[in-house]
Amino acid sequence: FYLTGIRLAPKEKLDILVLFMPDTMKMYEAVVVIHLMRENGENWPCENSTELKKNSKSSVTVAENGGIQGILWIYPIHGIPEAPQQKLVPVVVRCQARQRVERRIEVLLTGVVSGANAMPATRNSTMVDTKKPADIQEVQVSFSTTVEFQYELQYQSNEIKSQLGALVGMHLIQREWDTESGAVRLIFNTVFAPNKPMRNKATLAVQCTAGGVWKFPVLFIATEPEVDDVINIEAVGLNKESIVSFKLTSQTR
């Protein structure tokens, strides 16, 4: 795909529109090359054209007479498909403040990465909570079969990230492959240890090395903690003060 004959005035900006419409869940690569030449056909003067041609083959084109014929800008592009977003019911991880809970989350990935058996990216993501014990919830999401997976928890803001970053841990503990259906099940172990009541959303983003990103929501809820102690103050008489002293220890600075 080429565009020629675009005229630019001095200090004028050039906007380049890049469209990406993938049909399979794999990464696509392209390069945008901009070649700038003078409108009158003349070359830019250059004192040391031989050295420039030797060291800058990718940035300039040098004419036979030693001048600079054109200037190149090369922009590599990686197109990574993302599964269509749906109104998914978030997986809820609930824990009482100052306690610790472990929750297993299963992610079902279906699809083929590339080649003759590549499946269209129209297989939408779906997520369901199955009827399993309270400590197990399941998520189903469209994915591509590949050996390597990368995952991370994404938060709505840096403030939420600072709150949940040290309180939440997620680790991939098991992978199960089904060669007949081309599906893979990823099993994550999630640890949530809140220090105060909160209700924050996060997004688990999973990406395969061949390309393709799938996301699904997770909701972290920390309920009120248990009462530390009960303070009893006995009255010593009418209109007289009763005093009870106790110590408070700060967990942080």
From TrEMBL:
A GO cellular component annotation here is: cilium
Q: Which residues form the CFAP47-like immunoglobulin-like domain?
A: 82-223
Tell me the Gene Ontology biological-process terms attached to this UniProt entry.
sperm axoneme assembly
Q: Which residues form a coiled coil?
A: none
Q: Name one Pfam family in it.
A: Ig_CFAP47
Q: What is this protein called?
A: CFA47 protein
Protein species of origin:
Steatornis caripensis
Identify the taxonomic lineage of the organism of origin: Eukaryota, Metazoa, Chordata, Craniata, Vertebrata
